[in-house]
Design a protein that fits this description.
It is built from 6 helices and 6 strands. It is an alpha+beta fold and 181 residues long. The strands form 2 sheets. Strands 1-4-2-3 form a 4-stranded antiparallel beta sheet, sandwiched between helices. The two termini are 28 Å apart.
């Protein structure tokens, strides 16, 4: 825990495995307010963010960027204060020496739902853009793309021995978006 005057150096915090040896995310951060730094397999900083529930945010980032989420460092705070959270986030980015890609050019990939339209195969695009298709047929195509992408993500997380239940919001699939429920 920290107070407004005590911003810990990112380097002083311990690396925590994103997925523990029991296949779980760091459960100690469920319902905790804090700032977190996400690192790839080589411990290169990828993203710094803050949240009212660090655990849920980590889960969301893992689904959106599974190849980038191997280690995490977290600093929790007692009371919600956007100013304190933003100060820690900014201090860590400055300490890093450069802006992590997840806070720069690729921020939307870390913070927005997955847009499956951007990863359609050429066959899926042809089906989606088929002039003979009505709106219902287009929704069916996009839902199938969403299911394919969801299956790929789940398979990748299973290969990393994740034991946490991952449920996507079914209502967003027909819009071509994947986000946790």
């Amino acid at each position: 825990m920290t107070t407004e005057t005590n911003t810990p150096a990112l380097a002083s915090l311990e690396y925590i495995p994103y997925i523990g040896d029991r296949g779980q995310l760091p459960e100690q951060f469920q319902g905790k307010i804090g700032v977190y730094a996400i690192f790839d397999g080589e411990k290169t900083l990828q993203f710094v963010g803050y949240s009212r529930d660090v655990y849920l945010s980590l889960k969301q980032h893992l689904v959106r960027q599974p190849q980038q989420c191997y280690w995490v460092k977290v600093q929790t705070i007692e009371r919600p204060s956007r100013a304190v959270l933003e100060n820690i986030e900014n201090a860590w980015i400055i300490e890093n020496g450069n802006v992590p890609t997840g806070n720069g050019d690729y921020k939307e990939k870390w913070t927005n739902p997955i847009d499956v339209k951007k990863v359609m195969t050429s066959e899926e695009q042809a089906n989606y853009q088929n002039p003979a298709n009505d709106e219902l047929a287009k929704i069916k195509v996009i839902k199938n793309v969403a299911r394919r992408v969801e299956a790929e993500i789940l398979k990748e997380l299973e290969a990393r021995s994740l034991q946490v239940e991952i449920r996507f919001n079914p209502k967003l699939k027909e819009q071509g978006l994947l986000d946790l429920k």
